[in-house]
Design goal:
heterodimer; A: 445 residues; alpha+beta; OB fold (Dihydrolipoamide Acetyltransferase, E2P); elongated; B: FAD/NAD(P)-binding domain; FAD/NAD(P)-binding domain; Enolase-like, domain 1; 3 domains; 31% helix; globular
C-alpha cells in the first residue's frame, strides 16, 4: 500500500514551509528512517525521513516551493502501485511520472474540513483557475461571496478561509460590471467600494501590478532577508543601544600591513589584513573587559571565558556573522586564516549553521572600511552586549610635537553597546583601550 | 451650543434638518422667507401643479381622439392658481410640522455668519446670537438676470420664475428668453392655455445638455402645437415690451405682453456673511468634496449653492450625506446616475451619459433606440403620439451608461434606469428583470433586447 509523506505542521501558526532540498528522485529506493527532504520555516529548518521503506513513486514539488502544511509532498510504495489519489488538487505530477490516469479522489478526502486540509496549487498562475482552498470555497459559496476578484493571503496568492471571513466582515459585493471585468482582467478589489452602500464598482478595481507606466516591481523577500529584517528590528526594539565614536592613530597598523605585503612579495602566504589586526587587538582587550565579552540575558549577564569573535561578512544572499570560536587562543596568522576560511564558507554557502547564530559569538566586529565609511552606528546582534564597527582610514590633524600639527592617518572605531548591560564610561574605557592597543600593536607576523 | 446650524430651509436644508433631528442632533435652521425653498414655493411644486392642470385641459380638448366628446372646455386660471397656492401652502406647512416633530429649532430670520471662534461657529440674526459646532449652508440659487441692454427688472413685463408663477391672468403673448428646462416647461404650460409663445435660445438646441435627438423631438412636438422657436439667437436689447435679437446675422424683433427670463440659475453666496468664514468658491458656488465638506473644518454645503447639480433630488441626497458623515456613517455623493425630468407633455426623462458626453470622455458605447409605440400601453394611451427610448451601453461589457426617453409617463420610469446605472447592471442582468405588462416601462425591456 502506497503512503504519502506530508509536509509536517511545525507549530500552530505555521501555514506553510519551503522545501529546501529533495534528496531522492522518482524511482529511487528508500529505507525507513532515511532522509528524503528538508524544509524550513522562517525560524528553523527540519528534515523529513521516510516513514517506511519502498520506492519513490511520485514527487509533487520542487526545491524552493512553498508548500502548505499537511499537504502530500511525495509518495512511497511498491513500483506499479497507483498514487493518483495522493495528488494534491488538480495538479499534474512532474513529467517523470510513470502513470497518467485521471485523478481519483478517495471518498474521505472531500470531507476533511475540520482540519486545515487545503489542496495545493500549481506553481504557475492560470487565469481560468481560481486559487482557493476548498474550505474557503465552501464558506464563500454559502455566504454568497464573490471570489473572482479577491486577493488571497495564502501561499502564492491563494484565497484561504481568513480572506473570505474578512470579505464577509467588510461587505465585499461586486457590481455585475465589476464582476465581469474581474473575470476578464487581472485586477484586485478593495474590501469596500464606492458604489451603493459600499458596493465595489468597476472603477474601484485596480489592475494588479501595472499602474499604467510600470513604475515599480514587487519583489518577494527571500527567507534570509526576512530573518535579517526581523533580527535587526528586534535588536533595536529590545535594547538600549547607542554608539560612541573614536579614532585611533593608524600608523602602526599601516606599518604592519606594509610588512605583510613585503613578506608576501618574498613568497609568504599569509595575507594578514588591517581587519585581522584590528580583530586581534579587540580580542586582546576583550579579555580584560569580561562584561563586554558577554551576553545580556534580562536578569543575568553571561560572561564568556573565551572570546568567540563574530565577524560580519557580506555575501550575495545577505549579511552573515559567523563566529571564530576561542579566538583568544589564536595567533595573528591563525586568526587571519580562520576569518578567511569562514568568509569563503559563507560566500559558498557551506558554513556550519551553528556558528551563524548570534548566541555563538560573544562579541562582533563589523568592518566597513573598504567601502570608505568614516563613521556608523552598527546594530548589536542580541544577546551580545556590544558590536564594534571599524571604519576607513582618514587623515586627521594631530599634534606631532612642538605645537606643530600634521595630518596623520586615523582609523575610526564605532562602538555600539547595550546600556542595559554596561554604562557609558565603561564602554568608553573599553573603546579607548582598544584604540590604544591598535596604536601600539605588537604581533608576530 | 447646537450640534448643527443650517442656513436655508429648502430641499437640502430641511432634509438635512430632518435626518439630523431624527438622529438626535440638536439642530437650528435659519429660513428668511418660507420653508421649502424655491422648490416648494416658486419652482418644482407650483410649476408641476399648473402643468398638470394644463395637461388635463389639453387632454380634454383632444378627447374626441379617444371617442369622448367634451363640450365647452374652458379653464379658470385663478382657480388653478388658487389650487396651486393651496398645495404649496400645505406642503410648506408639512415641512414645518416635520421640523417640529424632529425637534429642529426654526428661526424665521435672515442669518448672518460672524465667523469661526474657539467656542464654535457664530451666527447672528437681528435679535440674537447662536453658536453651533457644525454649519451647513443651503442658501440655494437665484435666477440669473442677463446683462441685456434696456433690461429693467422692476418692469411689470419682465418676469422670472417667481413672478410668472404669481400671475393673475394668462398673458396673450409670451417671449421666453432661454430654452432650457425651465423655459421649455413654461412654454408648454402657457401654450396649452392659449398664449402665443416664442422661445429665443442662444444655442442651436433646446434643453441645454440633454440628448440632442430627444430635444429636437420635443421641439418639433411643441412646434406643431404652435410654439415658435428661434435657436442660435442672441438677445441684444429689450425695449419695454419689445425683444430685439440677432439670428443668422439678421436683427429681429418681437413684441409680447410678458417676457420671461430663464437663462439659468446661479448659487447664492452673498448677503449672509459667508465671507467671514473664508470658504473656497468654485465657478460661483461653494466648493465641496464628495462628502460635501468645504475647505473650512465643520462647514458644509449642500444643494444649489454648490453650483454643481441644481436639482432638488440631488439636494436631498447631499443633505443626507452630510448628516450620515456627521453621525458616524460613512457616505459620499455619486453623480453618475442623477435623473433629470422635463415635465412638459410629452415628458422627457434622462439619466446617465448622453452620446456627446460619452464621446467627449472617450467611452466606447453601443446604442439602441426604439419608438415608444413599441410599448403597447403607450399606444393605447397616447393616441396619435410617438416618443423615443434610447439606451447607451458600454461596448465591452454591456453596462448601462445612459437612458433617454421622450413620452409620458417616462418620469415615473426613469428611476429604474438610475438604479441600473448605480448598480452597474449589464444587459445580462437586465434581461432577467420582469416588467409589468402592459406598461409603458416595457419599452425599456424592448430596447434592451434590441441590442
Amino acid at each position: 500500500m502506497a503512503v504519502a509523506v506530508i509536509m509536517p505542521r511545525q507549530g500552530q501558526s505555521v501555514e506553510s514551509c519551503i522545501i529546501h532540498t529533495i534528496y531522492k528522485s522518482i524511482g529511487d529506493k528508500v529505507e525507513k528512517g532515511e532522509m528524503i527532504f528538508d524544509y524550513e520555516t522562517d525560524k528553523a529548518s527540519f528534515e523529513e525521513t521516510a516513514p517506511e521503506s519502498g520506492t519513490i513513486l511520485a514527487i509533487f514539488f520542487e526545491p524552493g516551493d512553498e508548500v502548505p502544511v499537511l499537504t502530500n509532498v511525495l509518495v512511497i510504495g511498491q513500483p506499479g502501485e497507483h498514487f493518483e489519489e495522493f495528488i494534491p488538487g488538480n495538479r499534474k505530477t512532474t513529467a517523470h511520472a510513470t502513470e497518467k490516469n485521471a485523478p481519483i479522489k478517495t471518498p474521505g478526502e472531500e470531507e476533511k474540513t475540520d482540519t486545515v486540509v487545503e489542496e495545493t496549487i500549481s506553481a504557475q498562475t492560470g487565469k481560468d483557475q481560481q486559487f482557493i482552498s476548498p474550505r474557503a470555497r465552501k464558506i464563500a459559496d454559502k455566504k454568497g461571496i464573490d471570489t473572482s476578484a479577491l486577493t488571497g493571503s495564502g501561499p502564492g496568492g491563494r484565497i484561504i478561509e481568513r480572506d473570505i471571513l474578512l470579505a464577509i466582515e467588510r461587505g465585499n459585493r461586486l457590481t455585475p460590471l465589476a464582476r465581469k471585468r474581474a473575470a476578464n482582467q487581472n485586477v484586485s478589489s478593495p474590501g469596500i467600494g464606492s458604489g451603493l452602500a459600499g458596493a465595489i464598482t468597476s472603477a474601484d478595481l485596480k489592475e494588479k501590478g501595472m499602474e499604467g507606466d510600470n513604475s515599480f516591481e514587487i519583489v518577494p523577500l527571500s527567507n534570509i532577508r526576512k530573518i535579517i529584517a526581523h533580527a535587526m528590528h528586534q535588536s533595536l526594539q529590545n535594547s538600549a543601544q547607542l554608539t560612541h565614536h573614536l579614532s585611533a592613530d593608524a600608523r602602526r597598523l599601516l606599518t604592519l600591513r606594509q610588512e605583510v605585503k613585503t613578506r608576501m612579495s618574498k613568497g609568504a602566504f599569509a595575507n594578514i589584513t588591517i581587519n585581522d589586526l584590528v580583530c586581534l587587538a579587540v580580542v586582546r582587550i576583550l579579555k580584560k573587559y569580561s562584561q563586554v565579552n558577554a551576553h545580556f540575558l534580562s536578569d543575568n549577564l553571561k560572561k564568556f571565558k573565551r572570546v568567540n569573535l563574530g565577524v560580519a561578512i557580506d555575501t550575495e544572499r545577505g549579511l552573515m556573522v559567523p563566529a571564530v570560536c576561542n579566538a583568544d587562543l589564536y595567533s595573528i596568522g591563525e586568526l587571519s586564516a580562520a576569518i578567511k576560511s569562514l568568509t569563503d564558507a559563507c560566500r559558498k554557502g557551506s558554513v556550519n549553521p551553528d556558528v551563524l547564530s548570534p548566541e555563538a559569538a560573544s562579541f562582533t566586529v563589523s568592518n566597513l572600511g573598504n567601502y570608505g565609511v568614516e563613521m556608523f552606528t552598527p546594530i548589536i546582534n542580541l544577546p551580545q552586549v556590544a558590536i564594534l564597527g571599524v571604519n576607513t582610514i582618514v587623515p586627521r590633524p594631530k599634534d606631532i610635537g612642538n605645537g606643530v600639527y600634521g595630518f596623520v592617518p586615523h582609523i575610526g572605531l564605532s562602538l555600539t553597546y547595550d546600556h542595559r548591560a554596561i554604562d557609558g564610561s565603561e564602554a568608553t574605557r573599553f573603546l579607548k583601550d582598544t584604540a590604544t592597543e591598535i596604536e601600539n600593536l605588537e604581533v608576530e607576523l | 451650543m447646537y450640534d448643527l446650524a443650517i442656513i436655508g430651509g429648502g430641499p437640502a436644508g430641511y432634509t438635512a434638518a430632518e435626518r439630523a433631528g431624527a438622529k438626535g442632533l440638536s439642530v437650528i435652521l435659519f429660513e428668511k422667507t418660507e420653508l421649502g425653498g424655491v422648490c416648494l414655493n416658486e419652482g418644482c411644486i407650483p410649476s408641476k401643479t399648473l402643468l398638470y392642470a394644463a395637461k388635463l385641459y389639453e387632454n380634454a380638448r383632444n378627447a374626441s381622439k379617444y371617442g369622448i366628446t367634451i363640450k365647452g372646455t374652458s379653464y379658470d386660471f385663478m382657480k388653478m392658481m388658487a389650487r396651486k397656492n393651496k398645495i404649496v401652502k400645505n406642503l410648506v406647512g408639512a415641512v414645518g410640522t416635520k421640523m417640529k416633530h424632529y425637534q429642529v429649532e426654526v428661526v424665521r430670520a435672515a442669518a448672518a455668519i460672524q465667523g469661526r471662534f474657539p467656542e464654535g461657529i457664530k451666527i447672528e440674526t437681528d435679535n440674537n446670537t447662536f453658536i453651533a459646532k457644525n454649519l451647513l449652508i443651503c442658501t440655494g440659487s437665484e435666477a440669473v438676470i442677463p446683462p441685456i441692454k434696456g433690461l429693467d427688472k422692476s418692469s411689470d413685463i419682465i418676469l422670472t420664475n417667481r413672478e410668472i408663477l404669481a400671475l393673475e391672468r394668462v398673458p396673450e403673448s409670451l417671449v421666453i428668453i432661454g430654452g432650457g428646462v425651465v423655459g421649455i416647461e413654461f412654454a408648454c404650460l402657457f401654450n396649452s392655455l392659449g398664449t402665443k409663445v416664442t422661445v429665443i435660445e442662444l444655442l442651436d438646441k433646446i434643453l441645454g445638455e440633454m440628448d440632442a435627438e430627444i430635444s429636437s423631438h420635443l421641439q418639433e412636438n411643441l412646434r406643431k402645437r404652435s410654439v415658435i422657436f428661434h435657436l442660435s439667437s442672441k438677445v441684444l436689447e429689450i425695449k419695454k415690451d419689445e425683444v430685439i435679437f440677432e439670428k443668422d446675422k439678421n436683427r429681429h424683433n418681437i413684441r409680447a405682453e410678458k417676457i420671461l427670463l430663464s437663462i439659468g440659475r446661479r448659487p447664492v453666496t452673498e448677503g449672509f456673511g459667508l465671507e467671514n468664514l473664508g470658504v473656497e468658491l468654485l465657478r460661483g458656488g461653494i466648493k465641496v468634496d464628495r462628502k460635501m465638506q468645504t475647505n473650512i473644518p465643520n462647514v458644509y454645503a449642500a444643494g444649489d449653492v454648490t453650483g454643481f447639480s441644481l436639482l432638488a433630488h440631488t439636494a436631498y441626497r447631499e443633505g443626507e450625506v452630510v448628516i450620515n458623515n456627521l453621525t458616524g456613517k460613512k457616505d459620499h455623493m455619486r453623480y453618475n446616475a442623477i435623473p433629470a425630468v422635463v415635465y412638459t407633455f410629452p415628458e422627457v426623462s434622462s439619466v446617465g451619459l448622453t452620446e456627446k458626453l460619452a464621446s467627449d470622455k472617450g467611452i466606447k458605447y453601443k446604442l439602441a433606440k426604439l419608438p415608444m409605440t413599441y410599448a403597447g400601453r403607450f399606444m393605447a394611451e397616447n393616441e396619435g403620439e410617438n416618443g423615443l427610448c434610447k439606451i447607451l451601453i458600454g461596448e465591452k461589457y454591456g453596462e448601462i451608461l445612459g437612458v433617454h426617453m421622450i413620452g409620458s409617463p417616462s418620469s415615473e420610469i426613469i428611476y429604474g434606469a438610475a438604479m441600473a446605472i448605480e448598480n452597474e447592471m449589464t444587459l445580462e442582468e437586465l434581461k432577467e428583470v420582469i416588467f409589468p405588462h402592459p406598461t409603458v416601462s416595457e419599452i425599456f425591456k424592448e430596447v434592451i433586447f434590441s441590442f
